[in-house]
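*** Query protein ***
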Amino acid sequence: MNIKRKAFLGAFAAMSLAALAQNNNIAEEVAWMIGDQPIWKSEIEELYQQMQYERMPIDGDPFCVLPEQMALEKLFLHQAELDTVEVSEGMVAQQVDARINAMIAGVGSREKLESFYRKPLPAIRETMMEMTRNQARIQQVQSGLTKDIKTTPSDVRKYFASLPEDSIPFVPLQVEAQIMTLNPIIPRQEIEDVKARLRDYADRVNRGEANFSTLAVMYSEDGSSVYGGELGFSGRGQLVPEYAAVAFNLNDPKKASKIVETEYGFHIIQLIEKRGDRINTRHILLRPKVSDKDLTDALNRLDSIRADIVEGKFSFEEATPYISQDKDTRNSRGVMVNENNGTTRFEMSELPQEVAKVVNTMEPGEISKAFIMKDPKRNRDIVAIVKLTNRIDAHKANLSDDYQQIKGMYEDNAREKIIRDWTEKKIRETYIRIEDGWRNCDFKHKGWIKNVGD
């Protein structure tokens, strides 16, 4: 259940590991000095070990690449201090809590996470708070540097004309499509059976006969079941409204809530902790099952609607607002929008697999027969028909077909140049000392090694 532009941080992605990798040992050797800020040899070694464990690629000699990345971070944080850049502590906390929950799920338990980092969870969280806060401040500095970029069609044309032939990207096959969906009718008895099971679970918890998290592991149909149904700290806006309305009114951590219906199914909820305007809960989710007969009935209904469209009684676009139950597309004539880039174009791998399989053999203007697919957001069986509106064969990018992609490339290039120029100016203006043994490097940026008298 998903109850919950691309960040331009470049080389700072690896810094998310650096803070966690530091231990409490006294550093014995300074490798770099940036202003009055040291970069310790132990920091670099710990980060390298951590990245090896995480199998994160390092583009070059790690004992050149990593300290340069750490030095760049310090330059941007210094600028953030000068600019008095502040970030929302609530936003930072939400991001950290979400990441910690994902990390715990990844390693299997809180205890395993603490063992891995050799720190208790509060210390891990404190370190991650500082790391996330720093990354947000760096992003704000970089956004401020690049906010005045203005792009004109002339700029894009000149940029494209300047690209070497081997730098022009190859664009895979893309399609544009419209979709119409139906949710099969679920019998009332199936819904009542699901509610009865949830009432039983809630009663057992409230009588002290069962542990909520154990029941969640055993019975919940949500991915959070693997760690006892716990969702982690969330703000009200991160939760679906029906869930939030009940969860934020819970006060007793020992009790289970009444049954809550959302677009994902039926839940019972248990409070874990409230922290200001955020809440941590666990839940058990059950989804009423769709029978084969219900699916067949929905398939037949959509096939009948398709037949009427093909016969010209009404158009796909006219029917969609009245028939489709896909709330993301029904008010836009069923037009599917790619969440990865905000356009209506999809590579085949970006489509739900059932849709990709259907449109693969279609021609523009065709409407598919009805088919069963999984709702990608709600993990339930639904029935759909799709209309293929456009197919763009694989090709080398050109301005006519791929203007938006080329415009994005131009803007990325412009951002990189602005930040690179700013960085190298900042390097020239800052006191920097690199110790012997750390200087023989092919650095990404110029000016780190100062000449005598500089």
Notes: The CA atoms of residues 219 and 284 lie 7 Å apart. Confidence is low (pLDDT under 50) at residues 1-16, 23-27. The first strand starts at residue 30 and ends at 34. The chain has three domains: 10-149+412-434, 171-185+291-396, 188-286.
